[in-house]
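job 3f2a | input accepted
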Amino acid sequence: MMFLLKRIASGGCRRYHHAYIKELSTRFIDTNIHVTSTSNAAVGNYYFLPKINSSYKRTFASSRSHGAIATDPFQRLVQHLKSANQTCTIIESSCGGLISSSLMGVPGSSAVYFGGTVAYNTRKSMKLLCGDTELHKRLMSPVVNVNDDVLLKDHSDLSDEAKLYVKSKLHQTREAALKYCQHVDTDFAIAEGGATGPTFQPKGLFSGFAVLTIAGRKNGVIEILAQKIVRSTHADREGNMRLFADSAAELCIETLSITNKSSLGESQIMSVHENIIGSDDGINKQDMYLDRSSYLRNNATEMKRFYDDPDALHVILRGSGEVMFATSTELALPKLSDIVEEGTIGEYELKNRTFLGRVGSNQTPVFALFLSRDTSYKCQNGYFAITRSHSPMLTPLHNELALTATAYNHWQQSHQYCYICGSPLEYIHGGTCAKCTNADGNNHLHWPRQDPSIIVLVTNPESTHALLARSPRHPSYLYTALAGFVEAGETFESATCREVHEEVGVTIDRNSIKYIASQPWPFPRSCMIGMRASTPDGLSSIHIDPNEIVDAKWYEKEEVYIAARDSDRMGAVLERSLVDEKHRKGEWSGNLLVPSKGVLARTLVDNWLES
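job 3f2a | predicted structure (611 res):
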């Protein structure tokens, strides 16, 4: 993996001998790092590293570990194929065999995968393509497809030259997937083509992308079932290879889940294309926001229509801490018709669903469905996971759905009685408002509240070090930004100064405080306000409050960069059992991780690493 060394430490820009940089990049590749994919698996367009010296080389040497090549998406893909007694083949380009090797790394994969091809140089790969000279000719002669413009409509930032290059990959992967499904005689074929970096041929392309295409059989005829453009935010070759490989497995799982539901009719095939053919998240851009439709909540006619809609989608919560997932990046969102057909959810739960809003061009209603901890409900290909530790891995829309549903669940569970008169509450307006049932007619209304909290990443003035801390509730390896509640009558800036001083005894420059982003955190009802700030006088002495903080340290940027990289590979770093297992297997031997992507604390860390 080549680094784009743009700004080095605080001592200005330094030049390094090409041979030394080459040695460093080779040294990094030898660590066999595999970054676990998330919806945004990147630190940034460039990795900004502090001064490279002998200690930095030692850091790389000590961090060598053998990352698990059979990542979670591939383990689930093999499970899906086995359960359906189906097979697949793979032809890949920029992933360099990582898709195939990841699949082969799963025990028992030989039952579903017979082999594939790595065609890295399309022009020179004719002899590798199952001896199919006609296929090679078609790969070298791109054909315009009207769907290509649909797939590219949300990538307006690309130059015309880059768009043509992406279109060539759309064409090549379609042709390759269809032919390989035929030649190898499998149920499915996965084709991948793209560019991983660190350098790119087309002008206007600065970060990695891959086109993923799935071909399969319908009524004996091989057709394209799904096609997707995945883009990263960086030019890290190895990180992109891992991201694109995992995305290929996830897309194949989604395709299998839809195509295996029934023998597909024409209308269902259209549904497959509408649901799967998309852009970087696997969701069309039109579906990437939640229309909360608050103006319709008190419209009884409209709400009844939403509640009775057989196509209404549902975020399923078990207890107050778990939500149902379909994949590591998407929720299971069963339709009302499927839930009713399954028959294990009672009338009370269905009646008391909470309206979250509508999604997509069809404005499909979405509800939160709250089930007890001991529920027997099961959704095909769905599984429950802890919301707090796994929701950050979700796509933005699905993350918002999970957190919104969790917020309403906590609110309803903790607000059973009117805090003014003590009368029982009943939930109206789709469960988003509570009305007091006081018999005297003073029916007070109540709505959910959020408690504002600040979270701040403190650095030294030169921005070479960041102050990270560990709270008692976090595992010993997890360090994060400082946080605390905003008190009554207090500004965000004043809360930032106060919390930092109270927790670690450090004074920050009030004029340095800068707002970065915000995030709902319904555990139970916070809204986090993310800040950056710096000290006025370098690496200030730390004096922790033992009632709030277990430990706090100043970390160099290189240390935090490596921790961020390891955290991306790890996934749900709040899951102690997951990290402990990596330790036992020798797949991670470090002592520092930072929060997962999707968490505001990590957004602050990435903002600093990129700056």
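job 3f2a | The two ends are 21 Å apart (CA to CA).
job 3f2a | closed
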